[in-house]
Amino acid sequence: PPRPAGMGDVPEPCPQAPLAVLSKVELRVSCKHLLDRDTLNKSDPCVLLLMQSQGQWMEVDRSEVIKSNLNPVFAKIFTVDYYFEEVQKLRFEVYDSHGQAGLGTHDDDFLGGMECTVGQIVVQKRVTKPLFLKYGKFAGKSTITIISEEISGNNGYVELAFRAKKLDDKDLFSKSDPFLEIYRIDDDRSEQLVYRTEVVKNNLSPIWEPFKVSLNSLCSCEEKRKLRCVVWDYDSRGKHDFIGEFFTTFEEMQKAMGENKVQWDCMNPKYKIKKRNYKNSGVVVLLDLKIHRVYSFLDYIMGGCQIHFTVAIDFTASNGDPRNSCSLHYINPYQPNEYLKALVAVGEICQDYDSDKKFSALGFGARIPPKYEVSHDFAINFNPDNDECEGIQGVVESYQSCLPKIQLYGPTNVAPIISKVARVAADEERTKEASQYFILLILTDGVVTDMADTREAIVRASYLPMSIIIVGVGNADFTDMQILDGDDGVLRSPKGEPVLRDIVQFVPFREFKNASPTALAKCVLAEVPKQVVEYYSYKAFPPRCPRPPSPEPGLGSPP
């Protein structure tokens, strides 16, 4: 059987594989033909990962030390954030470690380095490069291989708990010191180390610590992919003794859920051939398996979840007479006003996530025909049975045609509109499906008058599939509005009940006056994917029909 991937002094288990997070990449490192710096035995290599920041190399993380091995496969998984729009320079440095003394920094201890970018590794998925010493000298025939996997999509992670019974004894004066390694067998038949357990000393029936790995890492999210599991007897000089192996799949492992256990014969192929009555070299038992699904925003969108967009426009008298060019509602034929700019910037992105492209458009704070009574939730197309407009252009046209027909009045009450959208969202929630999520864009020129009712309405809405974006138009003092955006602390209802989720984003439009429309949209929509995932995760609603994982766009780049 092949040698194990290599072990450290007191080997640590692989770090827990991260959950499915956007734009993160897992890097696995191995080396071949390292220089032998030690006189009596082989080098004890360790890898440092450095990243360039403002022209300086900063250490990000380091691997375990592998004893006496010139061809190490490190169990450590390096996780780096991946930014498509940036050149991210990485440097891998390999050193010969000296036990308790740690890593040497002398030239004698340096086994070689290699530089590349995150982008290069992500594009190629597997990069093998020579290691260089100082001044561009080759480190003999030494090479380093980096394998990358993007953590994305319908991933999640699995928690596994293994033990073994009656393992073969490989030691003369004591019992074996067993550890378990799990390898994923890839399509090209190469093996990828997924996890290495800790060593249990002097024990033929060890119970290893439970551990978590991402489904992506374990089986590339394919339940039938073959896995090879190997049990070794640990040797401090790096010459571990092979006890036995078995093959399985994640599909088979899942039989261990609940009260069930799954066990495999741990086989040594040599003994099987040599010994007539050979049964096994012990058994390995999977005591428990827990699956934690982690869905992304794109999983919900690709599963058919629609984003329904509602805009609410402030028609209170403080905006100024729309016929006057100083008014915030003045229709300039050459230049859209701030209300229109904000509406178009946010709406154009949301419309890509709504298949029927129909938007609810509401107004508040005006006297409306026919009786000219004040309304705080009227349809700006004046159709009470259907407040939807065809696309963003339809909203713009309804806005422009309604202005001459209404009288700007007051006060600035937004709780009625929040409650109105919340009622529709509550009907949606009862379907118990991730089929529709609601975004309410409120455009207002001043601080809300009904602050207590608004806080109450937001707390109620935080339990529903909806998010609220408030854009402050004009030059008013919006200090009090920041209370509604829970970034500085938890928003509470007048009775003290906290929001379940932070669902409000508030920005003054004037901060984006000189920026591109995309800057406003990016700012106010940045939190929405997280809010969608938080809501459906809280409700334990999976995507309606999960697709295979794929790279996830931000809200600004529609699928």
From TrEMBL:
Does Repeat appear among the keywords?
A: yes
Asked if the keyword Transport belongs to this entry, the reply reads: no
Q: What is this protein called?
A: CPNE7 protein
What GO terms are given for molecular function? calcium-dependent phospholipid binding
Q: Which InterPro entries does the protein's record reference? A: C2_dom, C2_domain_sf, C2B_Copine, Copine, Copine_C, VWF_A, vWFA_dom_sf
**SUPFAM superfamilies, per this entry?**
C2 domain (Calcium/lipid-binding domain, CaLB) (SSF49562), vWA-like (SSF53300)
Q: Which UniProt keywords apply?
A: Repeat
The UniProt record lists the C2 domain at 3-131, 138-265
PANTHER family assigned: COPINE (PTHR10857), COPINE-7 (PTHR10857:SF6)
What Pfam families does the database record attribute to this sequence?
A: C2 (PF00168), Copine (PF07002)
GO BP term (any one) = cellular response to calcium ion
Its family?
Answer: Belongs to the copine family.
* Species, as recorded: Chloropsis hardwickii
Q: Which gene encodes it?
A: Cpne7
Residue ranges of domain VWFA in the record: 308-507
What cellular component terms from Gene Ontology apply here?
plasma membrane
